[in-house]
Amino acid sequence: MADNSVGSGVGLDRREVVSTLLVDRQDMLVVSGLGSPTYDLMAAGDHDANFYLWGAMGGTAMVGLGLALAQPERRILVLTGDGEMLMGLGSLATIAAADPANLALVVLDNGIYGETGQQASATGMGCDFVTVARGAGWHQAETLENLDQAAAWRGALAAGSGPWFARIAITSDLPPRAMPARDGVYLKNRFRAHLGLAPN
Amino acid sequence: MGWSEEIFKALQKGGISQVGFVPDAGLSDVISLAQADPQMTATVLTTEQEGIGLACGAWLGGQKAVLLMQSSGVGNCINMLSLVANCRFPFLTIVTMRGEWGEFNPWQVPMSRAVRPALEMMGLHVYRPARPEDLAPAVDAALEMTFCADQAAAILIGQDLIGRKVW
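^ Those are the sequences you sent over. The predicted structure of the assembly is below.
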């Protein structure tokens, strides 16, 4: 049983909410950040349209932006955690300025560095991502409080115009790791092949 | 045609459609040309390492990108280059150098001296054209190395080539 004393301990089950975001994903392309978000994405079901990062901490949202600009007809979902988002806070300003209509960014926020000893992160000590995102220029930024809101938010992506930012409070539980392939060249070429692109 | 136009035309010819940049005075004309080109998307970054994620995402989606930055920004990129190395993403950056030729600001010097070894330690090919007329051929050659041979490469442009920053 995880120790909830550092993070708020209050929130959704990360696996349930990620699965909710990916139900009937259709042609959505998904990029996940290192550590638990990558395990959550894998646990929801491996897919050729998933690109899992295992490192490069701080970069996942920007991979999503490059992909969103290159594939304007597809919906892009970026899945990351509070630790990585804090490392790339500047990218919130960069993405807002670029204003990609097809990019959705979800931060799973437990307020701790869950895999390294559960040390409190800045969001566990008062930093509010939704305020930061709005201040950085995101017009659509909100906290999703429950699975119904998560499902409705996901549904709205299909018809609406982004970019969208969502922060989801999750518990500090660490479910069993669901580990996707770690070979970066394989993941890259599998993803490109899904889009009908040759390896190079 | 000046060297900025020549570099830009080489990037155009090479099919570059995304340009990430943290501005440097030496690259301002290339940045302006990219911003004015309807076939290109120019993205201003808050830190250079964002440009590596941007370029890798572009390639995942079928586009080619270039990162434009100043030598000081190379230091911001080091761990993010593990994304390029691990996934063997094609990656091209053009770096204008400070801190080495007629520099007046000592704060530019330490990172400047570390640019080439740092990039090489992270697996990039580093090209340093000797004359202004060598710049566009270097871009052309680096585009082949990156997007055809799956390599990562940097082109360093010194102020001995393009003129010292005037204060």
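The helical segments of chain B are 3-13, 28-36, 49-60, 71-74, 81-87, 109-121, 135-148, 159-162. The mean pLDDT of chain B is 96.

Shout if you want it in another format.
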